[in-house]
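in:
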């Protein structure tokens, strides 16, 4: 029974996390009122980048069209209209490699 209670607690915590993420996505796509109410909580403010930038990742020849950051590792990737994907270490700002499409 102890194991069941632990699993239920973990499931409830996971549901809270995913509900919060879904709420953030919906608030961000709304009418610009994302800074008010529950979306303006400390967790929401923590996710907003603040100047000054720690690193500027430069190297694409074309316009950058997408960026993704790995949630666990210190890897970020950026895709560009020049047909390349660049891999970066976002903590150090170091360039890792280029993948060509």
């Amino acid at each position: 029974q102890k194991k069941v209670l632990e699993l239920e607690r973990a499931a409830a915590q996971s549901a809270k996390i995913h509900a919060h993420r879904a709420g953030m996505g919906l608030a961000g796509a709304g009418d610009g009122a994302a800074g008010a109410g529950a979306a303006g909580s400390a967790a929401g403010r923590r996710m907003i980048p603040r100047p000054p930038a720690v690193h500027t990742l430069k190297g694409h020849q074309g316009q950058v069209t997408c960026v993704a950051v790995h949630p666990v590792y210190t890897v970020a990737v950026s895709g560009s209209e020049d047909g390349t994907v660049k891999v970066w270490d976002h903590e150090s700002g170091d360039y890792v490699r280029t993948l060509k499409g």
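note: Helices lie at 2-28, 42-46.
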